Every structure is written in structure tokens, then in C-alpha cells.
Amino acid sequence: MNPLQSELQEVFRRxxxxxxxxxxxxxxxxxxxxWDSMAHINLIIAVEKRFGVxxxxxxxxxxxxxGQTVGSMVQILEAKxxxxxx
Amino acid sequence: xxxxxxxxxxLEHNKALSIYKxxxxxxxxxxxxxxxxxxxxxxxxxxxxxxPSTKFVDPPYTWIGNRVxxxxxxxxxxxxxxxxxxxxxxxxxxxxxxxxxxDDVYVGESAIVLxxxxxxxxxxxxxxxxxxxxxxxxxxxxxxxxxxVAKVDDLIRFWQAExxxxxxxxxxxxxxxxxxxxxxxxxxxxRQEYFFKDM
Lengths: 86, 199
Description:
The complex is a heterodimer.
Chain A: H1 3-15, H2 37-51, H3 57-64, H4 70-81
Chain B: H1 2-13, H2 17-24, H3 28-38, E1 43-44, E2 49-50, E3 55-56, E4 62-64, E5 69-70, E6 74-76, H4 82-89, E7 99-101, E8 106-107, E9 112-114, E10 117-119, E11 124-125, E12 130-131, E13 139-142, E14 147-151, H5 152-165, H6 169-174, H7 184-195
Helix pairs in contact in B: 1-2
């Protein structure tokens, strides 16, 4: 897990109030207890605050689509923060 | 003509109410007009929309601000259990509190708002919520007991982003308010096509 993903995992743990939560690129809303549409809003807001970025409307819409994974979020974050490791 | 007469009797004279509700089927805005005149609420502001199926159990202790939308919810200011406490224990207790709903609040279907609570300006109360504590302004709340799950400002940002992605986004951009009868058939067709495309 790269540093960005590790930071992201901390955000997930805080938002979903689960210190044991482990995320992978393939993790989607179906894999995380309580990841509903409202939790999704809080997650995105928390991610924005943590990484000092602001998602655009189309990024928000893309991240909200059914079946979207943590990997999609990581990709967008890497592009926005310039912290890509690939 | 008959509908007009029934409406007149209901709104102006508080008569023929059951016929008015059953046959005229007043919408939320019109029912709020009726309630402002005859509902017995302590205060009901202007520009509200209140479905006729909304239950005000204790109207004298209910205060509602401007542009509030109530969708088939229940507002109860008193605690009925004191009757049992009186019968069984001879206790003479009063358990009642006001409900204050500030401006621009939406309360969803089947939500229950209990006495002694204030719902802050611009908040959204999700369907089926049970509001037992006061809610800060600009909150989105859900559940029993109702809890703040998001801020309305954040919700708006997300819902706007999602709306822009729908194939019918151009229609929504032109729609005034939440419903346009003329636009609805086309919207319904486009939504069905989109929602069930894989079925």
C-alpha cells in the first residue's frame, strides 16, 4: 500500500468509525458496512479536507456511480495531488 | 363548478372538509392555505407546502416558519403515556413540549417529530426519521433516533453533480420547482429508459 492509499485508509477508518477497516483498490461501497449515499458524501468531504483538494462535479458524479472502487478514487487523487506512484 | 364550491366552503368557512379532501385532493400549497386559516397551529408561515396526510396531533404547540415542506409526517407534542401513569400510579404529570420548525425545512414521508424539539433553518429530515432532539440549522438527518448524517450544503453539491449527469439534465435545468406536469411524461420516459436499460 503506497502512502497515499495509507492516508486514504485512515480517512475511511475515521468516516466509517472502524479502526480495523482495510481498503484495497478493488474495494467498493458493497464491501464497506455503512457506505451509503450519505456516508459517501461525508467520505468525499473528508478526503477533500485530508488531501487539500476539491473534486469537480464530474469527478463527484463519477465517484458516486454504482460499482466505483477505491481504485478510481486513488487515480483521481493521484492526478489532483501529483502524488502518483505508478 | 362543484369543486370550486367545495374549495370555497373548506377554505373560507371550514365546511365540507371531508368532501374537500376526498374529491378535490388539495395539493401541499393549497392545504397549507387551509391550515393557515383553520388548522389551529400556533404559527404557520407563508409559502409552505403541507400534504393533507400530515398529522398535527397538537396544533396549538406547533410553530412552523416560512417555505416549510411537510410530506405526510406526524408531529406530536405530548406524551400519551402519562394517562397510564395516572391510572396505574395516580401520578399527575404533564409531559408536553413545543415543536418549532424554522424556515425552509423539509420533513419527509412518515417521519415523526416529537415535542420539545426545534428543527433548525434549512434542514432536511429524511423519510421515517424520528426526531427526538433539536436539529442544528442546515443539517441532513436520518434514522431513529434521528442523527445528523451530512450538511445540506454538501448534499446540494453532490446532488447537483449527479443531476448534471442524467440524460434528462437539460430538462431539469429548465424546470421550475420540483414538478412540472407538462414535462413529466417526457422525464418519466427518459428515466425509465435509463434506470431499466439493463433489464
